[in-house]
């Protein structure tokens, strides 16, 4: 069994659009601060679920259970004054809960499972041999929206809007298929978290296909996800063909001068038509490239190359490769935006609206208006976060634990 | 493996797999070997490996390599009896392991050549043979067939076409392999993957087997080296060790010490023949001798023995050298100081060993000093001098560049071969390994044109 995590989103994510609703005389105005966090950690943060997840079935009484497992997992806390605490570890859920409530970290990150308890690592460093070393961690695929800056024209950097967010949706679908169908990973988690922003580049990163046909997986991605998204949504929302600078970028990707000149000539004409200009021009481009009259080698692949260049998932290789990457913990709150990191259901990822993710202040407001503050399951359930927690439990945690149990049973 | 004295006989090995002769050399065989076969078999196999090395340096394409390997194998390793053939294969491989385990460079070379040999032998095998070998490797791959094959057939075709490979025949076999065992094929998108299994075509399986073979042999060589240094070398210092140590540096062609009967050369022809048929190393020595009327010892040996191999009789040789040297040192000094060693070379003095002309390998590894003119010009000349010499030989500009290219990558014999080809306007497939071979081949071509 392979356990996967899927990081998403950029640093300092600011979402335009529906966003912030103004509540009349709110007791909890929008924001992020230590007081809010204290309440959140006191009443809403799902300690038991996190502990169950991180234990991977080792917290039972079964003879196959490794009692030291949870204690060897690294957590890192970033405190209010930017103090950064690495190599935190806890032996059980109570210690985890107490530490978080007490320290009230602004950020919580999850590191790998080490060979020994991280808190005791210095004891082993003396012996010469590198005994303190990471031995296990979730396989992470990290997608940063700012990596798409060369193919989106509505936002840049960490900004995201409803026009370019669908690029993430598309990425989720492609990766989900890859993991479930191709590689047969049974339990996959998609979570929206933060990531460092990357540098901006103006040149368009182009995809090239050799060969006479697309590899089956690419063909499937194209047919099932990318083609329709590009033709029916993206060229329209991004006005890829109505703006000369933008369509020039696309024409640059076609290796045949005579084709591009002809298209350029057609488009400078600026004829009006009933249909959307992006649709018309994309149609013209496709027709020229796929008509079969082309003499230049491989030019009929140009259509797919364009679509893939714009929409195929862009991953950060380094994050997946290295074991010591610190993963932002789900159900943590993003300090800049006040939004909670929540899981995304790949089966319904098209309906996911990043601007509707609950904020800290909203949750506290809901808590306030609910039953008298006794805390506990019922309160959590009734907030906007309840839905996310329920999804987390049913689609991720329970199948995961079941799978862990089966694995340990089969070993005995 | 038991090495026995001359009286012992090689015993018959087990028949081996009915489908294939290819061996995996997993462990030293339970065979007895005669001492003379120990060396002989190794030499024959070494010819194959060096031929492969040559082919690779010349940049031969895969189909050319396949032919070459087959030719080399047939010419050197075949035996009349099947069982003897397999024995020779196995024995020669293990002897060469001893020879080539001893240093990093040697190990690398041997590994590379044996792996190439394996690859091309495998590719020539029948499908049954290949399947049998696959089974021997004991890898957990299952062939895809029947309904399962039907269900993925189109996807498999698509995957093959996407890599630009030639279309597979209808009966190409695919194997289901856990995807994590073929990371290269996955990363380069050359396989279709479903439910954790990669569908690997037979020709891709070859790569896997070759990798496995290489890895096994590499480990074995390290172990062999340990055994050699800790135990075998000492134990065998009077018997096998000298043979083993000599084998890695040996030249393997004919020794040209006995010139063929018709291959005589007379003094009046010698200048003409030097221009037309001498390799550059000998041409240079010859010209220097004519110029300076003298050559130092290294040059006298290299040129003198070459001339002997070419067919210069002793009396003619004495006359030849005397004619030149007496113009510098006088006739008496020649008789007193130089004649003896010429007679010595012809086996008429002292030990009466008939010395053999030097091979390219020996000449290349010599170390000419100031005032010396022997050695291999492709190695020992400056670029400028070499270009000038080639131009003088009549080698065209384009060919000179090709030659210099080989020189830069230190393939001196290939450089000489290219020179031969340029000068004679004919190809030399075997490659130059010996100055006398150059001469003979050159004469052959010239005679055939008269």
Automatic annotation (TrEMBL), chain A:
Gene Ontology process terms (BP): DNA replication, synthesis of primer
**Enzyme Commission number(s) from the entry:** 2.7.7.-
List the GO cellular component terms.
alpha DNA polymerase:primase complex
Q: Which CDD domains match?
A: AE_Prim_S
* Organism domain of life: Eukaryota
Q: Does the keyword Metal-binding apply?
A: yes
Q: Please name the SUPFAM superfamilies in this protein's record.
A: Prim-pol domain
Query: In the UniProt record, does the keyword Nucleotidyltransferase occur?
Result: yes
Q: Which UniProt keywords apply?
A: DNA replication, DNA-directed RNA polymerase, Metal-binding, Nucleotidyltransferase, Primosome, Transcription, Transferase
UniProt GO MF annotations: DNA-directed RNA polymerase activity; metal ion binding
- Which EC main class describes this enzyme? transferase
By sequence similarity, the record places it as follows: Belongs to the eukaryotic-type primase small subunit family.
Q: What is this protein called?
A: DNA primase
From TrEMBL, chain B:
Q: Recorded GO terms, molecular function? A: 4 iron, 4 sulfur cluster binding; DNA binding; metal ion binding
Native species of this protein?
Sesamum radiatum (Black benniseed)
InterPro entries referenced in this protein's UniProt entry, alphabetically: DNA_primase_C, DNA_primase_lsu_euk, DNA_primase_lsu_euk/arc
Q: Which family is this sequence assigned to?
A: Belongs to the eukaryotic-type primase large subunit family.
The organism's lineage? Eukaryota, Viridiplantae, Streptophyta, Embryophyta, Tracheophyta
Q: Which UniProt keywords apply?
A: 4Fe-4S, DNA replication, DNA-binding, Iron, Iron-sulfur, Metal-binding, Primosome
Pfam families for this protein = DNA_primase_lrg, DNA_primase_lrg_N
Name the GO terms of the biological process aspect.
DNA replication initiation; DNA replication, synthesis of primer
The coenzyme or cofactor needed here is: [4Fe-4S] cluster
An example GO CC term for this entry is: alpha DNA polymerase:primase complex
Residue ranges annotated as coiled coil are none
Q: Where is the DNA primase large subunit C-terminal domain?
A: 271-439
Please report the name of this protein according to its UniProt entry. Answer: DNA primase large subunit
Q: Which residues bind [4Fe-4S] cluster?
A: 281, 360, 376, 416
């Amino acid at each position: 069994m392979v356990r996967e995590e899927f990081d998403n989103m950029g640093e300092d994510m600011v979402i335009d659009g529906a966003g912030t609703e103004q509540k009349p005389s709110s007791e909890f105005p929008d924001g992020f601060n230590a007081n809010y966090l204290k309440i959140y950690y006191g009443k809403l943060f799902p300690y038991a679920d996190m502990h169950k997840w991180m234990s991977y079935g080792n917290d039972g009484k079964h003879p196959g259970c490794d009692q030291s497992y949870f204690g060897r997992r690294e957590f890192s806390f970033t405190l209010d004054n930017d103090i950064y605490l690495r190599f935190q570890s806890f032996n059980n859920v109570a210690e985890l809960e107490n530490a978080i409530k007490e320290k009230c970290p602004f950020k919580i990150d999850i590191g790998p499972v080490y060979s020994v308890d991280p808190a005791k690592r210095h004891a082993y460093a003396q012996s010469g041999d590198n005994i303190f070393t990471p031995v296990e961690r979730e396989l992470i695929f990290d997608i940063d929206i700012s990596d798409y800056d060369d193919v989106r024209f509505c936002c840049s950097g960490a900004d995201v809007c409803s026009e370019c967010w669908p690029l993430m949706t598309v990425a989720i679908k492609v990766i989900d298929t890859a993991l479930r169908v191709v590689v047969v990973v049974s339990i996959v988690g998609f979570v929206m978290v933060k990531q460092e922003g990357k540098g901006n580049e103006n040149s368009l990163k182009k995809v090239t296909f050799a060969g006479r046909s697309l590899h089956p997986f690419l063909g499937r991605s194209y047919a099932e996800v990318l083609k329709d998204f590009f033709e029916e949504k993206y060229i329209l929302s991004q006005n890829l063909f109505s703006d000369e600078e933008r369509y020039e970028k696309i024409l640059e990707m076609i290796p045949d001068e005579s084709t591009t000149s002809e298209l350029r000539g057609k488009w400078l004409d600026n004829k009006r038509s009933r249909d959307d200009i992006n649709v018309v021009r994309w149609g013209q481009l496709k027709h020229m490239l796929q008509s079969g009259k082309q003499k230049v080698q491989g030019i009929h692949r140009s259509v797919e190359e364009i679509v893939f260049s714009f929409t195929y998932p862009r991953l950060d290789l380094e994050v997946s490769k290295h074991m010591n990457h610190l993963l932002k913990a789900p159900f943590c709150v993003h300090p800049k935006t006040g939004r909670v990191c929540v899981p995304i259901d790949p089966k319904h990822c098209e309906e996911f609206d990043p601007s509707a993710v609950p904020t800290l202040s909203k949750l506290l407001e809901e808590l306030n208006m609910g039953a008298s503050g006794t805390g506990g399951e019922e309160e959590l359930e009734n907030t906007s976060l309840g839905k996310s927690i329920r999804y987390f439990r049913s689609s991720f945690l329970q199948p995961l634990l079941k799978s862990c149990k089966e694995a340990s049973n089969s070993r005995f | 493996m038991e090495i026995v004295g001359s009286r012992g006989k090689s015993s018959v090995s087990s028949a081996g797999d009915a489908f294939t002769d290819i061996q995996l050399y997993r462990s030293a065989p339970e065979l007895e070997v005669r001492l003379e076969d120990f060396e002989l078999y190794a030499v024959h196999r070494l010819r194959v490996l060096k031929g492969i090395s040559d082919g690779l340096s010349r940049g031969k394409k895969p189909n050319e390599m396949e032919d070459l390997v087959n030719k080399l194998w047939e010419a050197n390793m075949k035996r009349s009896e099947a069982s003897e053939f397999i024995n020779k294969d196995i024995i020669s491989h293990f002897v060469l392991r001893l020879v080539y385990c001893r240093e990093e460079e040697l190990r690398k070379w041997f590994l590379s050549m044996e792996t190439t040999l394996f690859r091309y032998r495998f590719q020539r095998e029948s499908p049954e043979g290949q399947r049998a070998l696959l089974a021997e490797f004991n890898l957990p791959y299952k062939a895809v067939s029947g309904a399962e094959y039907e269900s993925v057939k189109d996807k498999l075709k698509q995957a093959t076409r996407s890599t630009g490979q030639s279309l597979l025949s209808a009966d190409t076999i695919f194997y289901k392999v856990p995807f994590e065992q073929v990371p290269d094929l996955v990363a380069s998108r050359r396989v279709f993957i479903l439910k954790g299994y990669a569908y690997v075509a037979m020709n891709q399986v070859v790569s896997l087997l070759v990798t496995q073979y290489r890895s096994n042999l590499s480990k074995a060589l390290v172990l062999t080296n340990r055994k050699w240094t800790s135990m075998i070398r000492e134990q065998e210092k009077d018997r096998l060790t000298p043979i083993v140590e000599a084998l890695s540096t040996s030249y393997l062609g004919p020794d040209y010490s006995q010139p063929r009967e018709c291959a005589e050369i007379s003094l009046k022809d010698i200048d003409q023949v030097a221009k037309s048929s001498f390799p550059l190393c000998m041409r240079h020595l010859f010209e220097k001798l004519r110029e300076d009327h003298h050559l130092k010892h290294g040059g006298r040996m290299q040129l003198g023995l070459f001339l002997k191999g070419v067919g210069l009789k002793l009396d003619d040789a004495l006359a030849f050298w005397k004619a030149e040297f007496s113009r510098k040192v006088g006739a008496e000094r020649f008789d007193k100081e130089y004649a003896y060693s010429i007679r010595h070379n012809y086996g008429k003095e002292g030990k009466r060993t008939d010395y053999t002309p030097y091979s390219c390998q020996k000449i290349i590894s010599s170390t000419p000093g100031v005032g010396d003119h022997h050695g291999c010009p492709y190695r020992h000349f400056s670029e400028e001098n070499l270009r000038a010499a080639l131009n003088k030989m009549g080698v065209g500009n384009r060919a000179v560049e090709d030659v210099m290219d080989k020189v830069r990558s230190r393939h001196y014999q290939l450089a000489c071969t290219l020179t031969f080809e340029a000068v004679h306007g004919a190809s030399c497939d075997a490659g130059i390994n010996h100055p006398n071979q150059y001469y003979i081949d050159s004469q052959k071509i010239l005679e055939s044109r008269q």
